[in-house]
Structures are given as structure tokens and as C-alpha cells.
Amino acid sequence: MKKFRLLSLVLAFVFCAVAFVGCGDGGNAGYTAENKEFFIGGTGPLSGDASSYGISVQNGAKLAIEEINEAGGLDGIKFKFDIKDDKAAADKASTAYDQLYEAGMQVSIGSVTSGSCEAFAAKAAADNLFFMTPSASAANCIAADNAFRICFGDPDQGVLAADELVANYENIGAIYDKSDNYSSGIYEAFNARMKELGVEFKTQTFDAENKVDFSTQVEALKDCDVIFLPFYYTEAGLVAKAAVLKGSDAVLFGCDGLDGIAGQIDETVTNEIKYITPFDVASDDKKVAAFVKAYEEKYKALPDQFAADGYDAVYVIYEAMKKAGVKDVTISPDELCEILKTTITAKDFSFNGVTGKMTWDASGAPTKVPVIVDLSK
After folding, report:
1. Which pLDDT tens digit goes with each residue over 101-149?
2. Domain segments of the chain: what residues?
3. What CA–CA distance (Å, rounded) separates 211 from 113?
4. For the CA atoms of 163, 169, 277, 369, what is the dihedral angle to 10 degrees?
5. Residue 157 and residue 151: Cα distance in Å, rounded?
6. What is the pTM of this model?
7. Which stretches within the chain are classed as H helix?
């Protein structure tokens, strides 16, 4: 009798231990039959130097969630959304993913910035959880078949920029941040395309330790008709001010990272500034105008490209789930992922959002037409 009792206790302990390990080992334990909402998660920099991007995505995504829920959700089932602050750091994005997954995240908008999204993507691939990142543009972010994005990829923007500049200018210059993956990734694609086109151009660089004074770079490119700036608006604003000081009247041409540069310059900057973007806040498109109005009413500010990307990312997930006829609120991330991959890459699926009309193939990259914003108009 004592031996049997002891054996029973040992077995009970083993079963409990196994259950405990299962709950802590990526089992999506937070989602149960008692849940009443579909759960979309994500991470982004809500504090720190890159917080403007994360907050914009958060605002756009929340606005979409509110609109969807106010319209009745998906066949009466509403959505909940949670975005964790990753401070644009990969390790924090990885930790945030674990927290969201354990809380029951079923599908995601991934991470806002590329470095964080690469860490997020590795976790999502292991769990086969579908995500549609609004703005992580590095190629590695969507390397796995469960990963998709709204924004243009870095190589895409480099090629688009090269084609645009060669078609419209003769003396072309470029400045890029050799310490930043976003900037160097776009530049590498730009450089490769320029070689294909047989066009020579001048290049200047900077890095994370030297991005305050751009007078040397601008002086070296003073005679250029256009200067390509594949980096973010904060540094681009400094380049624009340096152009004024050096007497350069070159057109300053950038990619989606320049969205926001209008707030970094004043009337002393007379250079024409253009950039590639999937979103133009001044567009007269009815869908864009309605989004801008709703966003401004809610947040007392105009939306930027990142807000628009976040808004579209949520709506793509919703529309794909709707088209696929998803009705089970307790559906597992793995099962939902397989459904969404099949639905979104189907020939009859497209999405017309505030960042343009999009389709996707198995690469996870969107096919859509870019907008070139001219701040002088």
C-alpha cells in the first residue's frame, strides 16, 4: 500500500511538472474558451529616440480597431489590441513577444522598426504566428512564410529612387548612414541599380557618431542637381539646413524615412524636398481624407506614414479573416496563420487602403504604386 501511494505521488508530481513546462514553453496559455475577442498584438518604440514611429503606428492601429469594433467586429466578434514598448531594441521586442503570446495573441502587426522586427519574426516563425508589419522594411523581417508587410522594402525604395533620379536629373549625389541598416540597405540597392543603368554619381557618408554637422558632405556635393538622402527625417532636416549655409540649391530626395521632415525645417530652407512614400496626408482620395479627418479628431494631430501603415495593417488582417470566414474566437495562432497565408496570397485578394492598393505573393512584400511627395507644392 505504501509503495502504491508513493508511486501515485511521484506520477502526480511528474504530470504537474510536465504541465508547468508546457505552460511556460510557448503554449499560448493565455487564450482560453472564455475569451470573447480576437487578439492582435505588436511591439514598437513607445518611448526613446524612435518613439514617434511607434506612437504613430499605435495610434493608427487603435483607430482601426475602434472603427472595426464600432461596426460590429467580425460577425459580432470584436477585436482587442495590445502593443508593447520595445524601445526599438531587439531584446525587448523578443521579451514583449513572449508576453503577448502567453497572454493569448493570435495574430500580429509585428514590430515597427526593422531591428526589433527581426527578433520578433524569429519568435513568430517558431510559433507559426502570422504578422503584417506596418513599417519594418529590412528584407530579413519577412524572410519566413508567416511574415508580411505594408511598407515598401529597403531594396524596393533604392531601385525606385534610382529610376526616378536618373529620369529627371543629371548631376546626382547621395549621402547615407553607413552605421544604420535602413540607410545602408536602401543605398546598396540604389547603388546597384545605378550601376545597372550605367550612371555615375557622387557619394558621401556619415555614421551614428557623426550625424550633427553635415556641412562637409553638402560642400562635397554642392554642384549636384539632386542629393539622395536614404535616412530619417531628423538627420535630413540637418542636411537641409546645411544646404542653406553652403549655398546649395540641390533637390533633396529621400525615402519613407523623410516623412516628418516638414517639422524639422522652417522658411529659411528653400531647397525643394521630395520623398517616396506610400501615403500623402494631403491626398484628395476619399478614403485617405476620411482617415485623416478621423485621426485628427481623435489625436489632435495629422497622421504620418507610420500611422497610416498601422491603420492599414490592422485592416488587412481584418479583411483577410473576414474573407476566409473565420468565426472561431478561440482559433489557435498556428491555424489562423495557415488560413491568412492562403487568403492573402490568393489571386482574388487585394486591399485598397490609405497607403494604396496592395496585393501580396509568398514573399510577403506588397505590390503597390508609390507616391512622391513634394513639400514645395
Report:
1. 999 999 999 999 999 999 999 999 999 999 999 999 888 999 999 999 9
2. 37-151+284-369, 155-277
3. 20
4. -40
5. 10
6. 0.82
7. 2-23, 51-70, 90-102, 114-127, 154-168, 181-197, 215-220, 233-246, 286-299, 305-324, 333-344
Domain 155-277: which topology?
Answer: Rossmann fold (3.40.50)
* 37-151+284-369 maps to CATH 3.40.50.2300: yes
DSSP code per residue over 148-198? EESSPPHHHHHHHHHHHHHHH-SSEEEEEETT-HHHHHHHHHHHHHHHHHT
**Grid-cell match 480576437, residue found:** 38
Q: Do domains 37-151+284-369 and 155-277 have the same CATH topology?
A: yes
Q: Fill in the DSSP letter of residue 141.
A: G
- Name the amino acid, one letter, at 143: A
C-alpha count within 13 angstroms, C-beta hemisphere, residue 287: 13
Residue with cell 514583449: 96
Q: Given the C-alpha cell 504578422, which residue does it identify?
A: 131
